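To: structure subgroup
Subject: Chain for Friday's discussion

All,

I'm putting the inputs and outputs inline so they're searchable in the archive.
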Amino acid sequence: MSGRTVMGFVGRLAAVAALAAAAVGVAPSAYAVPSFARQTGMACEACHTVFPELTHFGRVFKANGYILSNVKQVQDVSGKKEELLSLAQTVPLSIMAQISYSQMKTGVPDLSNAGAPGIAQNGTAGFPQQLSLFYAGKIAPNFGAFFQITYANDAGTIGIDNTDLRFADTTLLPDNSPLTYGLSLNNNPTVQDLWNTVPAWGFPYATSNATVSPLAGTAIDGAFAQDVAGLTAYLYWNESLYAEVGGYRSAKQAQNNELTGGAGPLDGSVSNAISGLAPYWRLAYEYNWERHSLEAGLYGMQFRLFPGGAPGAEIPLSGPVNRFSDVAADVQYQFVSDDHQFTLAGTRISETMSLDASVLGGTNPKDSLTTTRFWATYYYRRKFGGTLGYFSTTGSTDPGLYPAAVTLPSGANPGVIVSANGSPDTRGWMAEVNYLPWLNVKISAQYTAYNKFNGGGTNYDGVGRNASDNNAFYLLLWFAY
């Protein structure tokens, strides 16, 4: 569940819908798991530079439905020699754990005594931050899965994490070039993608859930992870040209209908329910030569959302909607050899908003938001390495979306997670060093430095907090078995 936090996007949608309930969560990242190594009989380096970043072979393995296997199968065929069953004798299960420590440059207020706030403890241990169980591998001929169940310490519960169920097959075209085609049933837009540039897969692959997150984030950037169900269809020609289209519906977790008491249907107490289908599309091209690969692509999604409201203050799921249209470009260069692995990657997401359902709550009728991330990663012999990344979010000034104050019942304004000037602008750098004593064990030290946070470099919240006060150190032990 680490990766991109969704506090920003969910928080600002709660702000534009005055009666919506605020929600905070973390959008998980997808992981490499030893189940695939056991199934294929190949070491992790066949599919990964260093987990979870994929090599070209790893991308082809994923596009073909996770079904390549080198273990003994229980098989059955019909009288017409049709394959009826191909079941591995070893169940492809894995576990993954993250144990972490996080600390910010400056602590946040302790509001237990709102009349005279103190300072909260600065330094949070996650033991574990996450603990996951995976089913990852072949289920049947042409059908495989990546299925994750996770305990997360921020939620304190066990829940469904990233899930990607795939049907895939390959045919030869008249010129003998291969064409892979398939379907993906998944619960996180971009988790089915093949490249480590899109939100579900991109750097940082793990982040702290105990630090302060900016207000703003685009809708496709993890805000609906594990909150939707989507079906997409894709074509992958000659292991180079990739095209995919599909749609997503809301699939809210732990949401009960007020009338039936059951899990559905969704009603006006639900915040940000999708109206109809949210269409998704993807186009990418990869060129490979010797030990190099270069990919460039486009992807995007459109959301039509009912703002909803908290129980007792419902807003019917009908009438005006808030529209979010995201269009993004991505690029990735890889060099992979026995001694050296180098990756240069990035994405830029542009979002336009039409806030018809929330304009009466004080927002602008239209807004825009742009997120940019670029990073460079180097490893020596897959043992020692690091990443340097730049991130930026810029957009329209809108005090209705990015409020200037959070006033407590006592009247105190603690600042920290607000924007004094109504701007979403945030930018900074992230540096990470890694040591892998073994291919399935990683020790990471990560530092995030902000030049600007929620619209300002100094006193961004109007209560004296500077962007650099949210700088954060993150130490992580990450292993999978």
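Points worth raising on Friday:
Residues 3-72+83-480 form a domain with the Porin fold (CATH 2.40.160).
The chain is about 5% helix and 45% strand.

D.
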